[in-house]
Amino acid sequence: MIEPGTALSLIAAHGIALVAPLALVEGPIVTIIAAWLAQRDLLDLRAVVAVVVLADLVGDALVYAAGRMGGDRVARLLRLRPARVEALALRLRQNAGRLLIGAKLTHAAGAAVLFAAGAARVPFGWFMLCNTAATLPKSLAFVALGWWAGESYDRIGAWILPVSIALILTAGTALLLARRRCP
C-alpha cells in the first residue's frame, strides 16, 4: 500500500502522468489526493476523473485476466474438487452482475470476486459493463470526497479499509438473516 503522504508528494511533483500508475495500485486514496490537487488548480479535474476511472477498469481487467489464466491452479491449491469448482463457477456466472457490482462497491471484496469472475469465465464484455457501472459512481464519490475534504487525505486513507470491511460484514449478516427468515 502506498502511504498517502508519499502519493501526495509524487502526484504534486509529477502531475497527472503519475496518477494512472498510482491509481492502478491504490485507487481510492490516489483519487482523493488527485481530486484535492485539482481543487487547488494543480491538476485538471476532468483529466483526474478520466484517468482514475480508466486506471480502475484496467486494474480490474488485469485481475480478471489473472483469474482466467490462474484460476485452475488456485482451485487445486485450495483442494477444491472440479465438480465443486464448476458449480461455484456456474453460480457466479448466473449472478455475475449483482456480485461484481456489490463487490466493487464494497472495495475490500473486490479483488477476490474479480479474480473469481475470470476463473469462472464470466464473459469479458459483461464483466467490463458491470465493472464500469460500479466504477463510475465509486470513482466519482472518491473524487467528490477529495474535492471537498482532500486535505484530510491521511485520515481518510486510514478509514477506507475498515469501513469497507464493516460494509461487507453488515451485508453478509443481513443476507444470513434474510435467508433464515425465508424458507
UniProtKB/TrEMBL annotation:
Recorded topology in the membrane: Multi-pass membrane protein
Keyword tags: Cell membrane, Membrane, Transmembrane, Transmembrane helix
Domain of life according to the entry: Bacteria
Predominant subcellular localization, coarse grouping: membrane
Transmembrane helix keyword on record: yes
Keyword Magnesium (UniProt): no
Protein name per its UniProtKB record: Membrane protein DedA with SNARE-associated domain
Organism: Cereibacter johrii
